[in-house]
Hints:
The chain is an alpha/beta fold and 313 residues long. It is built from 14 helices and eleven strands. The protein has two domains: 240 residues, TIM Barrel (Alpha-Beta Barrel), CATH 3.20.20; 65 residues, Non-ribosomal Peptide Synthetase Peptidyl Carrier Protein, Chain A.
Amino acid sequence: MRLGPVLLDGPFVLAPMAGVSDPPFRRLCRRNGASLVCAEMVSANALHFKDKRSQRMLEVFPDEHPLSLQVFGSDPDRLAKAAKMAAAAGADIVDLNCGCPVPKVMRTGAGLALTKDEKNLARCLEKMVSAVNVPVTAKFRLGARRGRNDAVRLARLAESCGVAAVTVHARWKDAGHSGPPDLEALHDVAAEVRIPVLGNGGVQTAADARRMIETGCVGVMVGQAAMGNPLIFRELWEGEKAKPFSERGVFDLLLEHARMNVAYFGEKLGIVRLRKVMGAYIKNFPQAATFRHRAYQVETLSELVELLNQVRP
């Protein structure tokens, strides 16, 4: 799969997820088969005002490439500046979030709200494309109102602005992250533009990925199914031949994730951030309920190691 000049070794992409798609998690997904990893979105306004936390969100590790850094905002000049910063940080691709339905993001005119002013959206995309030498992509939802496929028109607009590819979350705003994707609507988008279209939403199995690619998409972006399961990308590659990973192997992967988090964020924050996905690692194991209850009380790496030694086979 090719996105502009960036050649990927396959069609399976880690989605940008706030509070999840950080460097440790991205690196685990990359080494387990993700063809491209996307960082959690960072505010162009925060970068403009030199917010330290936001600047650190642009940090890239050598074993992550190819990598997409995603920004959000509604000011064309600030988005162009953010794109330059992302490219300078090592991004292979810079993505504009045009689909986030979270109210605090939309109140700033960003995310899904940016699509309500298509003239400004075009200015934002054109400025970003002109600002960097790496491909610029954009991520949309189908639309704000169910049954009205705004993504067809938005994808055409993005193509006319020089965008290298678009990702379409094949759900409407009111669906959030639940329910099946609308594959027919996704097909309509892919049929309308010459640039690559990636599908997103509801991909949990190789069969889901295959159905999405059959709509005309060049690849699929995996979000929720990857939380606590970097191995999802191996499963997508192997398809029906995929063998379940052993419980011991999953526990070892969780411990590796914990150690990487602590090394990157420090012990306190690293363990706190890991709590969001710890339960998902072993959700199908017999001891999952007991583990979740105790895991959310863990505060240090040594406490987590002790817990894992008690419950893993």
